[in-house]
């Protein structure tokens, strides 16, 4: 067996095992179930949820969005280079260059955001209540806020199966592309370096996914199946990378991959900003501590982005 192939197979198993372990920890231990927690236990889980929200925020902005923008920009530059020989010296070249300055990457990410927004609005229009209740509605209005602040418990997690599904799908797309990148590395050193960078942030993100599934009341069987399917995505991408030739991609294959990454980033940002962060920050207790936990999770992901 070639050393490079052996290293990539080792990376495959490392990605699979780490994802399974980190994702199943919140599901297998009842300590992470916030519904049954009281007092200090509930506060610790709340702060842990805020830290995971910061991790999601950092993953969305510093990893998924950044990689999507870089990929789309790279494919557009390739397109410009292919057409430059025909247009060089013509007056239309300046106009074409000006048109290429349009922020296509940001547009594609926004389309992913609005696509999920449309799906959720359509679900609410056709089946009122299908998407569940938002975490910051009637529970925090009027005198009910005072009752909860003095005697009651924080609001229950938002029951939005559509958003949970979108979160899993967007992360699955991203995981496939991460594994594909590892599988396409030409040397042992670059494959190991990239794999370590992926492992460093993937463990935290998948732990946050498992915690999120527990907090929204997902059954243990479905939560386990969700983590298992998510764990298989990176190895699947790595296998695809091993199967793909190391030459230039055919036709629009590279552009299609970049566009899919952009859409996945937009859907991930939608869930992060409209579901995870509002839910974790809804309670009035310890706002500075919550801010610190969110900032800590984000800072860790930003630090990892130096190598990822």
Automatic annotation (TrEMBL):
Gene Ontology MF: a single term: zinc ion transmembrane transporter activity
Compartmental location: Membrane
InterPro entries referenced in this protein's UniProt entry, alphabetically: ZIP
Keywords, comma-separated and alphabetical: Membrane, Transmembrane, Transmembrane helix
Entry membrane topology: Multi-pass membrane protein
This protein's record includes keyword Transmembrane: yes
Primary localization class, coarse: membrane
Source domain of life: Eukaryota
Annotated Gene Ontology cellular component terms: cytoplasmic ribonucleoprotein granule; cytoplasmic vesicle; plasma membrane
Transmembrane residue ranges: 12-32, 44-64, 102-119, 164-184, 190-210, 222-243, 255-276, 288-307
Annotated GO biological process: cadmium ion transmembrane transport; keratinocyte differentiation
Identification of the protein by name: Solute carrier family 39 member 2
Source lineage: Eukaryota, Metazoa, Chordata, Craniata, Vertebrata
Gene: SLC39A2
